[in-house]
Amino acid sequence: MSEIRFTNVKQLPSVHLLGSGNPMCAGCGGLEALHQVYDILGANTVFVNAAGCMTLLAVYPFTPFRGSWLYTAMASAPAGAQGIRDALDVLKERRGLPPGEDMQVVVLTGDGSAYGMGLSATSGAIERGLDFLYLCYDNEGYGNTGQQASAATPHGARTATSLSGIGFVGEKKPLFDIWAAHRPPYVATVIGSEPLDLARKIEKAKAIKGPRLIIALSPCPTGWDFDPQESVTIGKLAVNTGIWPLKEYVDGKVVHTKIPRRRVPVTSYLEAQGRFAHLFKPQRNEAVLAEIQAKVDAYWAGVI
Amino acid sequence: MNRVLITGNLAAAWGARLADIDYCPAFPITPQTEIIETLAAWIDKGEMPGRLVTLESEHAMVTAAGAAAATGVRVFSATSSQGLLYALEMLYTVAGWRAPFVLVNVSRGLSAPITLEPDHNDILAARDSGFLQIHCATCQEVLDSVLMAYRLGEDPAVRLPVLVNLDGFYLSFTREPVAIPDPAVVREFLPPFDPGTIRFRASAPESQAVAVLSGGPYSYFRYEMHLAARNGLAAYDRIAAELEARFGRAWPAVEAYRCEDAELLFVMMGSFATKAKAAVDSLRAAGWRIGLLRPRLLRPFPEAAFRRWMAGKRGAAVIDQNISLGSGGVLYTEVTAAIHGQPAMPLLTSFIGGLGGRDIPPEEFFEMARIARDAAERGQAPPPRLLYTADELRETRKLQVLAKVERARLSGGEQP
């Protein structure tokens, strides 16, 4: 079974397929995840992109992808995937397209599209059983336009549109649950700072037919306000504090793939990012910090 | 060739079937739904090959249509009104992919107020999208135009998607005798789609629709689309000539009815132009030298045909079944721009009528002819006229009185 192909980080691909020198920010957690995902998926892919940071990966006449790419619009990348998948199937059935010319169809969007504008198109694609892989790089805000609050922004984060008070007053939309409620064959959360977990999940997803959906939490130096070199550290803290549970939905069940045995206090994660600085200075907002910790504790109390 | 009595919707579906489409992303909307229901039934029963998939919106439907065409299959889809506008972002987008396909629009007035009956504001909202546009007046024309649209869009010098328009109710649900051409003859007229280099294949990776970061390349690609659309003029004439030779039916870019010796012209598009045609016959019988110009091709706009047909005429009544709110008729501005600065052109008068399926009865055509003639004699155009009768106004006033009475009753019995 493909799951056991990667038991050790040394087995992970050491040469990256995705070209370097693209316009993503230094320390981009989304790019880190994309590198790893692409290495597992391989060049025999067509990426269908929605408006977001990664739209700028392919700027005429350059692309870092060795496979194909189609930019659609913010709301309808899954529908673009539908058109390509259906067309390739019809070409094989009717027009003699050799199977070797087929490709994995991969939707690539940020959280702005995945959690909001593109949710209807995603729901439709899952409901139709579309054979595709969806990769959402989730940096918890409209990053490409300067980190305004999105449906993925966590409670208490300062964004360009939630600058005062405790910051964003809403809650991060439970996209994993929303996707899983459609009962697709596979849903998973990943993060670039846990490459072995990520590789296993992408390897598993690659072998499955039907809708497979992946959310990669993507530490964002510019949007979250931290030094780019801290990107991996912050990603590890997101997992070890329990804020970003690594899990998968498969065969109707949710399985946590990495349960932090002793969870680090959420303050370690929050303190490291400028977007939460107002919760610590000029004085600690104990109420909000306790509220965030309590929600994480309550989540894990339901898991174990 | 087999003549049957079918609706405009069925004629559109027959066009798609005869074009041997591979793929139809679909979404229902009145008055278009019969088209996709027909195709779905044919595919389900194995009467035609291909795949039909119902998307969750027209925005998604046009995205899927463009993406499938960009993968190299022949694509057909259909929509109407609000659906076309819901997809508008993607109309502009997929046109830029240069992946041809055919989208049928069954015209219906736009909200608000929401309505079901036809006018052309929906299709004209897509005027600048990069889709070419063919406007039909009869059910036969719908079938033939779908076939022509594939030829036009897939022409190597064009490579743009094409909208074929028919009017809701007046064509969509009206049965007319339609000749269904022999599939073998259609195949000679319309060979299988050759996607050229625009298609996704594992062995030939390709990036499509990538970003550009400055006005230089952006303008280049936009100009390319414009010039490709302009190439559609010559391509259209060639295709129309070929269709006429094979099927014996002529669908020129601009239909000219009894125009040769005319002094006055009606200018109209769509099925309501058949009302203008009847008015021409009546007026001719009464001694008027009048004709009708009906553009079938709206994009690219056939200026040359307009100039040719209008040269030497005295006046023309341009009747728009649309309204650019705050300006007036769209066709009027198009025709004005086409003939401006040309020698011996007629004086144009502008009329708006037929909104939301409002009828244009013969007497209104006679009145418009009179106004156009008088204006030409005076050498000065009157302000644009909004067609509406005292009777219609009285009926609408009655509805308003009813509305007031009902409101008063609900808010405490007070009478107006």
Features:
heterodimer; A: 304 residues; alpha/beta; Rossmann fold; globular; B: 416 residues; 2 domains; six-stranded mixed sheet; five-stranded mixed sheet; 16 strands
CATH class of chain A: Alpha Beta
User: How would you state the average pLDDT of chain B, rounded?
Assistant: 97
Unreliable segments of chain A (pLDDT under 50, ≥5 consecutive)? none
Order of helix and strand elements from N to C terminus of chain A: HEEHEHHEHEHEHHEEHH
Please indicate the count of domains of chain B.
Answer: 2
Account of the protein in words:
The complex is a heterodimer of chains A (304) and B (416). Chain A has 304 residues and is an alpha/beta fold. Chain A has a single domain (2-303), classed as Rossmann fold, CATH 3.40.50.970. Helices cover 35% and strands 15% of the residues of chain A. Chain A is built from ten helices and eight strands. Chain A has helices spanning 29-41, 77-94, 111-117, 119-127, 175-181, 195-207, 221-225, 231-240, 266-271, 286-303; strands at 45-49, 68-71, 104-110, 132-138, 186-191, 211-217, 246-250, 253-258. Chain A has an eight-stranded mixed beta sheet, sandwiched between helices. In chain A, α1 (29-41) crosses α6 and α3 (111-117) packs across α4 (119-127). The radius of gyration of chain A is 19 Å and the shape is globular. Chain A starts with 28 loop residues before the first helix and ends with a helix. The model of chain A has no long low-confidence stretch (mean pLDDT 96). Chain B has 416 residues and is an alpha/beta fold. Chain B has helices spanning 8-18, 33-44, 58-71, 81-86, 88-96, 121-125, 139-154, 183-189, 215-247, 273-285, 303-310, 330-339, 362-378, 390-410, and strands at residues 2-6, 23-26, 51-54, 76-79, 102-107, 132-135, 162-167, 176-180, 207-208, 254-257, 264-267, 290-295, 297-299, 315-320, 347-352, 385-386. In chain B, strands 10-12-11-14-15-16 form a six-stranded mixed beta sheet, sandwiched between helices. In chain B, strands 4-5-7-6-13 form a five-stranded mixed beta sheet, sandwiched between helices. In chain B, α12 (330-339) links the parallel β14 and β15. In chain B, α1 (8-18) crosses α2 (33-44) and α1 (8-18) packs parallel to α7 (139-154). The longest helix of chain B is centred in the middle third of the chain and has 33 residues, at 215-247. The chains are: A alpha/beta (304), B alpha/beta (416). Chain A binds chain B through residues 43-44, 46, 48, 55-56, 58-60, 63, 65-73, 75-76, 78-84, 86-91, 94-95, 97, 100-103, 120-121, 123-124, 127-128, and chain B through 22-23, 25, 49-51, 53, 55-57, 59-61, 63-73, 75, 89-90, 93, 97, 200-203, 205-213, 217. β2 (68-71) of chain A pairs parallel with β9 of chain B.
